[in-house]
């Protein structure tokens, strides 16, 4: 295959979780895929592996949300609820429970990273985690010369609803 400059792509993306656009980000969205293996060794070859098996794979997506809205906080904090005042709908609050016993796989949703340089209809470079959830760790600060950012980390879980178990996909997931 010949080299092609069209294969060099910028990484800025739009993030949607469960079909909801989470808005602007700042600092870059980071994807990490880790694969754990087991190396097979036998006495006759000492410390030299004779084979290796994949034991598991993890996918993590770090998303620094620049749009620190109450609605986004509800999306990234399991069990959180948005309270809207019955008299004045501009008065809102987010109530966050302790979350003890929350099963993250029960609330997992698709997380899709779509490059902003592509039209919405072009899914060829999408990164999709079929079942993603965030435990709700949240860190942000109020600084004089910096934006307030909701930094959240999504973990991927296997989607075993089809014929084969899937963790994530790159490209158009409607391809068969």
Please give the structural blueprint.
Layout: E1 13-17, E2 20-21, E3 30-40, E4 51-65, H1 70-76, E5 81-84, E6 92-95, H2 104-107, E7 109-115, E8 127-133, E9 150-157, E10 168-170
Antiparallel strand pairs: 1-2, 1-7, 3-4, 4-9, 5-6, 7-8, 8-9, 8-10
Q: How confident overall, as mean pLDDT? A: 93
Low-confidence stretches: none
Helix content: under 10%
Overall strand count? 10
Gyration radius (Cα, Å) is 20 Å
SSE pattern, N- to C-terminal: EEEEHEEHEEEE
How many helices? The count is 2
**Given the C-alpha coordinates, what overall shape results?**
globular
Q: Which secondary-structure class do the elements indicate?
A: mainly beta
Give the biggest beta sheet. Answer: 8 strands, antiparallel
* Share in β-strands: 35-45%
The rounded distance between the terminal residues' Cα atoms is 24 Å
